[in-house]
Amino acid sequence: MRIHIATDHAGLEFSRKLQDYLTDKGHVVVNHGPTEYDPLDDYPAFCINAGQAVVADRRAGTEALGVVFGGSGNGEQIAANKVEGVRAALVWNLSTAELARDHNDANVISIGARQHSYDDVIAFIDAFVAHPFSGDERHVRRIAQIAEYEQTGDIVGKGVDH
Q1: Which of 49, 86, 138, 162 lies at a CB distance of 3.0 to 4.6 Å from 32, suitable for a disulfide?
Q2: Is the N-terminal amide bond of 34 cis, ω within 30° of 0?
Q3: Residues 6 or more apart in contact with residue 57 via CB below 8 angstroms
Q4: 94-102 and 118-130 helices, crossing angle to 10°
Q5: CA dist., res. 36 & res. 75, Å (int)
Q6: Which residue(s) pair with 68 in the sheet?
Q7: Neighbours of 99 (CB within 10 A)
Q8: Are residues 100 and 128 in contact, defined by beta-carbon separation less than 8 angstroms?
Q9: How distant, in Å, are the alpha carbons of 16, 19, 131 from that of 144?
Q10: Helices 12-24 & 118-130 angle (0-180, nearest 10)
Q11: pLDDT tens-place string over residues 5-24
Q12: Distance of CA 38 to the CA centre of its chain
């Protein structure tokens, strides 16, 4: 699987170690930055680039997921979710990693590097990568509604206020 990674300075060390770990597991890892420590760097472009790459790969038929890091993971999740077709979930334990895939078919996860140990982060990512989307009708329906709103600004028949 191809895994796209992005971070800011807060997650740079996790990102470096994670790239080695995932490569050793046989994944193709693409780093969207940064490549060196800068305490004043800005994460939005890094995370947006990772999100765009995940969507492009999946549309081309390449199995791909993304992982974005920051101090809390919140801003990185928000940035990634600005990309049409990205479903980025903030993950803080094994259950949220699994449910992100199972219920939401998330294609990107965001993790707070200052919130977790490296071992926890590895466990979350392993669970996210290994856990498939359930394909349950209710989840498919809800994901389609989110995509419909993303593309049209409405969810027909669902009472979205304008």
Answers
A1: 49
A2: yes
A3: 2, 4, 63, 64
A4: 20
A5: 20
A6: 6, 110
A7: 18
A8: yes
A9: 35, 32, 20
A10: 50
A11: 999 888 888 888 999 999 99
A12: 22
Place of tokens 């969207």: 32
Pairing mode of beta strands 108-112, 2-6: unpaired
Q: Per-residue pLDDT tens for 116-136? A: 999 999 999 999 999 999 999
CB 3 within 8 A of CB 64: yes
Amino acid at 121: V
What are the angstrom distances between the C-alpha of 55 and each of 36, 61, 62, 108, 155?
26, 10, 10, 10, 22
The pair phi, psi for residue 29, each rounded to 5°, is -110, 130
Closest CA to 124 of 95, 160, 161: 95
Catalytic residues: 76, 103
Domains contained in the chain, CATH given: 2-131 (3.40.1400.10), 135-162 (no CATH)
Say how far apart CA 97 and CA 129 lie, in whole Å: 9
Q: Which helix (H) or strand (E) segment is 5 a member of?
A: strand 2-6
Q: Are 49 and 33 in contact (CB under 8 A)?
A: yes
Q: Quote the distance between the C-alpha of residue 89 and its chain's center.
A: 6
Cα-Cα-Cα-Cα dihedral sign, residues 45, 47, 7, 31? negative
Q: Which residues pair with 29 in a beta bridge?
A: 3
